[in-house]
Design a protein that fits this description.
Strand order of the largest sheet: 1-2-3-4-9-10
CATH class: Alpha Beta
Radius of gyration: 18 Å
Number of domains: 1
Strand content: 5-15%
CATH topology: TIM Barrel
CATH superfamily: Aldolase class I
Number of strands: 10
CATH architecture: Alpha-Beta Barrel
Order of helices and strands: EHEHEHEEEEEHEHEHH
Distance between the termini: 53 Å
Helix content: 25-40%
Length: 217
């Protein structure tokens, strides 16, 4: 049965620990109602010593190509911010067939319990998300949007409609909201309503008109 009751697009986020696993997952989604695949390349590549796919240009390109070769869906690659140059990674996945990129994934962080002197997480380190990462996300989206020709999906700490507008001005054609929903499940609705009002107040007919309109010094 068709469970989608509104004009909704379904994006399936996939991840794997080997290139073959990523391709296999993507292939399984052929023939389903999924409209697009988002490939998470922030996972550790177990065959290559555990470094994330998304931290090496060649590996990021290879996993993108492997998935693109088997999928019939548009492919968006989700980039890791834990790199020296996110632009190089973005260019590599674009050259290997990515239809879009999304960024940023979580920043690597760590907290320590000063009573036990143990890291808070059993993994010692983990992903930092939420408003703290927003300025980094805006910077990286701006850099990537100016370096690739494919669309950019922006995310990372968006909590208000102002944040969403800012991210789009940086160059994102669309945005994702994650951590904000934990504090307020209605956050995406409020953000969408705020963006609608912003457009009406400023005589903007289509939200796409603001994409990449930042005017750097």
């Amino acid at each position: 049965p068709n469970l989608v009751t509104k004009d909704t697009r379904i994006i399936a986020n996939i991840a794997g620990s080997t290139i073959e696993e990523c391709a296999e997952l993507a292939e399984k989604l052929n023939g389903t109602a999924v409209d697009m695949i988002e490939l998470n390349i922030s996972c550790p590549n177990v065959k290559q010593g555990g470094a994330a796919f998304g931290t090496d240009c060649n590996v990021a390109g290879a996993v993108t190509k492997a998935v693109k070769d088997v999928t019939e869906k548009p492919l968006m690659v989700k980039l890791s911010p834990n790199v020296t140059s996110i632009v190089d990674i973005a260019k590599s996945v674009e050259a290997n067939g990515a239809d879009a990129v999304s960024l940023i994934n979580t920043l690597l962080g760590m907290r320590i319990d000063i009573k036990t002197r143990r890291p808070i997480l059993k993994n010692n380190v983990g992903g930092l998300s939420g408003p703290a990462v927003f300025p980094v996300a805006v910077r990286m989206v701006w850099q990537v949007a100016n370096a690739v020709k494919i669309p950019v999906m922006g995310m990372g700490g968006i909590a208000t409609w102002e944040d969403a507008i800012e991210m789009m001005m940086a160059g994102a054609g669309a945005v994702q909201v994650g951590a904000a929903i934990f504090a307020d499940p209605y956050a995406p609705v409020k953000i969408a309503e705020g963006m609608q009002k912003f457009c009406e107040d400023n005589g903007i007919n289509n939200i796409s008109e603001i994409v990449g309109t930042v005017n750097p010094w």
